């Protein structure tokens, strides 16, 4: 059977010099890609826990559009501003963790959180949509791994913040009261699972400086479907 000369060339041994050049090129591309991700390109994150249900389930993976350059938890440069309604990743330099929350209000806006819900500049931002049992398409997958609640204790609300209209949850644990005029250059953030979230209603975190906002969620690229 005749030898396929093109195939023969494909299988010819690669010289050490060419192999070394290829490895260096691959390594350079890998480092450049990692640097682009850390220094301003889109970045992937994995959601951990129930605080952003039903928008993000436990284990959902999503991409963010970055707002600056970071070295670990140290901001090197910042651009862009998070808007009311954005889902953002926030770096907490205090305890070296990243959290995913929604921007409820920006600098200059007056926020009140009480047992009746959330108000911004004197207006309630959410209206009751119904019990969770009426919304089986809304994944409340991690609730059972904490403290299961009867359906009548779980309520879905439809919330409008800026250009964002989305669902939030109240599972009957009660909201942490808070009130503030958000300082300029800061944002007030909360989880969409309102009573299962550590957020700006906690005085330890409070309003977040915009330079601590790593970026805005672009979309979910993988979910386990629970």
Second-tier CATH architecture of the largest domain: Ribbon
Major beta-sheet overview: 7 strands, antiparallel
Structural class of the helices, strands and pairings? Answer: mainly beta
Q: Give the neighbour order of strands across the main sheet.
A: 1-2-16-5-6-14-15
- What's the CATH H-level homologous superfamily of the largest domain? Umud Fragment, subunit A
The number of domains is 2
Distance between the termini: 56 Å
Describe this structure in words.
The chain folds into two domains: about 5-40; about 45-220, Umud Fragment, subunit A (Ribbon). By secondary structure, the chain is mainly β. The protein has a seven-stranded antiparallel β-sheet, with no helix packed on it. It contains two helices and 16 strands.
Descriptive tags:
Umud Fragment, subunit A; four-stranded antiparallel β-sheet; single chain; 38% strand; mainly beta; 2 helices; 226 residues
